[in-house]
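User: Fold this; tokens only.

Assistant: Input:
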Amino acid sequence: MKLILLVLSITSFMFADGKIGGVTYFDLNKTDDATAFNFTRQYFSYGGEVSDKVDYNIIFDVGRTNKNDGEDTRLVAFLKKGQVNYKSQWGKFYFGLIGMNTYGVQEKNWGYRFIYNSAIDKYGFTSTVDAGVGFSRSVMDNLNFSLLVVNGEGFKKPQADKYHKIAINTTYGESNLSKNDGYNAGVVYSTEGTDGDPTTVAGLFAGFAGMGIRLGGEYDMQTMGGVNSNIISGSVNYRVKENIDVFARYDIFEDGDTGENDDSKNYLIAGIVLTRDGGISVAPNVRMTTHKGETEAVIEYKVNFQFKF
């Protein structure tokens, strides 16, 4: 009994100064076939500091897992991130279900995760979270380096083989252009062993923010099973007023699978973001997808909503 009380006391002390937060994604979608409201995502986060050197971040994700026919279509909650950070004189160490270092800066250069994923994430070249360990440090002013060793399956699957993924990120400049002016350029690289040739991803990215304009661009190449796929993506955002932005993004995805599963496409998205008090953002937008071998684009109209607390 004393042990239980001690554990409860320590746990209460650890979480007393923590911070609760969350993000809601919701949209209205219109195509030629249907018009529907969709509750696409809900994140609940909790984080805090245990000491001057140790902090933690926990995120629960609520979404749908019905990727295959016949699966349950209800919203389900699962642990997406459970990361512990340790600060040392050599740099910062990460443990647990940790955020990947291969997509975050590009996502901030784009700036609108609630509207659409970053290109390297959207086309499946990287997972956003994985189980493993990591290390990062500032090599010199404005130059940051990070190295992760993770399972490679992402946060939705347990380790299924003996191989692990190694991921490297080197970024020069401001890493969060969605909030701060500046510029950045960087390189990401990951490799994961298989029974045959390793699966590798290499990417270059750059961004700029200033004078009310934000620009972002990236080029990514994936080699999987001897097949090469690549992405070219560019985005531009202009702040018309303090709470009104206009944006556009264009992706070119070349799928290395030249068979019937070839998903090569050109994708254009453009719209307006209205930011209101209380963490609310509303973004009416239009999307045009042109698949390989087709001349007529598939047009989709959406209104994306985001609520942050």
